Amino acid sequence: MAALIRDRTTAGRTTVLGLATGGTPIPLYQELIRLHREEGLSFANVVTFNLDEYLGLPKDHPESYWSFMHHNLFNHLDLPPQNIHLPEGMVAESEIPAHCAAYEAAIRNAGGIDFQILGIGRTGHIGFNEPGSPKESRTRRIHLDPVTRQDAAPAFGGLENVPTHAITMGCGTILEARKIALMAWGSKKADIVREAISGPITDQVSASFLQEHPDATFYLDKEAASALG
Ligand code: GLP
Known about the structure:
The chain has seven helices and nine strands; from the N terminus they run H-E-H-E-E-H-E-H-E-E-H-E-H-E-H-E. By secondary structure, it is of the alpha/beta class.
């Protein structure tokens, strides 16, 4: 990622990054901050698009992805605030389709995503593309799977506080990224990683669509890889 940013900056071009939340990318974000501080990696020519945001959470809610990204990455870089894009959690229901269409247009106008970072949920979701999300799906409102809400419950202090819906980039949006890196750590991810990599390509496991992407890499630790044959 650093090499891509440096090469494109040298060539006078921007780099468009697709970014993810969750515990998984935190070590990556810490390394990007270190590269910025200690090795002068500049994000002045970087544009970012996050995968998703909870619906109904204001930006300053501690569990909003806007808060997460600023706390864990953006506040520590020279990334221009106008280059940062996340779906808006407080968008009025009637404005959601237009908001999602504008998000897609902003990605297109930026030239498309050069490098997309992904985690994987226990439902096999990338972004918040829960089981049943078509391969061609675009940025839209999604109903969160009970497993996903259960996994988020501790951070929200109880299941009843976890939003029921989110806005997420679609599978089709994600698959248009030119390069994709999915990361997974720990034994809790082992079964779904196996399904994503060696199971059937199905909308029941949206990460399985990555099998058909020309430049997608899974980065796994031993535990997350432990169910692979
Ligand atoms: C949420 C996010 C996903 C993320 C997943 C896994 O559902 N929307 O983008 O991949 O959590 O989270 P973690 O990395 O904490 O396991």
